[in-house]
Give the backbone structure.
Amino acid sequence: METYDVRELAFDPPGWHHEADAWMAEYGEQRVIAFPTAARRAMLAACSRFYSAVMGGLVAHDGDPRLARHIANCVLRDTPAGGYITKDGRNSPRKIDAAIGAVIAHERAAWWASQNTAPVFAWA
C-alpha cells in the first residue's frame, strides 16, 4: 500500500481477522474488504467468470510457478448451481491459495471495471 496506489485489498476472512482489523483501521473499510470464499453462491459465480476469462484469453499469466502449481492442485466441485474450485481434501497438503487469490483478484477487478472507473490492475 505504501508503494502502489491500491484501490482495494480483498481477502478471504478465515485466519485473517486480526490482520484485517489492523488493515481496516489503517486503510479504511472502503479499501479493505472481505471476500468470503465459503459463500458458495459468490464463489460459484467468481469461479465461472474466472474460467470464462481464462478460456477467452482475457487473463494473462506471467508463468509464476507458484500460481501454476496452485491452479494445478485445484479440484473442480460440481453442484447443480455450477462448479467451484477447492482442495482435493480438507487436510490435503496441496496448496491452492494462489489460485483462490487469482479468482478473488479477477472478481474484484471485474467488479471495479463494471463501475465505469479508471483501469484496474489486479495481482494475486
The first strand starts at residue 9 and ends at 11.
